[in-house]
Amino acid sequence: MSASNAVREFVHPGACISIGGFTINRNPMALVHEIIRQRIGQLHLVMHSGSQAMDLLVGAGLVDLLEIAYGANGRLAPTCVRFRRAVQEGTLRIEDYSNYQMTLRFMAGAMGAPFLPTYSGLGSDIIEKWGFDSRFRERTPEIPLRKAVVVEDPFSREEQHVVLVPAVNPDVTIIHVQKAAEDGTTRIEGLTFADIEQARASKHVIVSCEELVSPDELRQDPWCNSLPHVIVDAVVHQPFGAHPTACYRYYDYDMKHLEEYREIAADDERFRDYLEHYVLGAHAFDEYLRLIGDEQLDRLRASLGLGYARRDLL
Fold this sequence. Notes:
This protein is α/β, with parallel strands linked by helices. The protein has helices spanning 3-10, 29-37, 52-59, 81-89, 99-111, 134-139, 195-201, 215-219, 255-265, 268-280, 285-292, 294-300, and strands at 16-19, 43-46, 49-50, 63-68, 70-71, 93-96, 115-118, 149-152, 161-166, 172-181, 186-187, 204-213, 234-237. The protein contains 12 helices and 13 strands.
């Protein structure tokens, strides 16, 4: 399926969207570009560690609500630039959790449980400081009535508290992976982050992939597969579909592009020009890649032995 058709069918205004990847690794950029091109707004994003994909959506003005643990492009932007500005200017409603808490929320959603317990957050103010007040929660059904609840462990002989974090079930999860088959069977190579839990918690899943392979190839090593075909709704074949973030064993993150983006994103007019040039003006992700150029993409290709590009070539 094409990215445009997949997004048109499964991503709608006001949807709750979960974005896979972790900081500058495996962001589903081709799918995010398509969401921006189709101007699908009033979105509610849920993720653990957001990065370039989240920053573009927020900067494009398409996100109303955000539940997140961390939003950064690694050392290239310790806090994503457009994300930070939206929070400071009050144009984005946000609530933060720890990375582990967000992962548990997806896990609870995948299990069909209403919540899961954890020690994460005890002794910190992350439990007490809510981004959404009680009145907003009462009138917003997609937000849990409470951010988290601290209770006594009913099984302990000693006084012990645990934190209950609410399940989250996104309308759609979008992830980028190394390999997938047309039937939806998906293989993530290297770190999976929380992509598996996010996908299993969602009503719909869109996967973009570096390689579209036959189901028979993935059946040869079934223990290496990450998602079964029954939970994946659409597969989009898009090489370099995570650029400018990295995809292990295929290409490294584009330091040059991300450094330039950090400077551009700090200026409203330059950011609008960036969106127009690289996203809105490119009618498909392949056109965006042509703007990046084959020479630069070749530099980013991963060394087979390392899984990433050699630093001296970047």
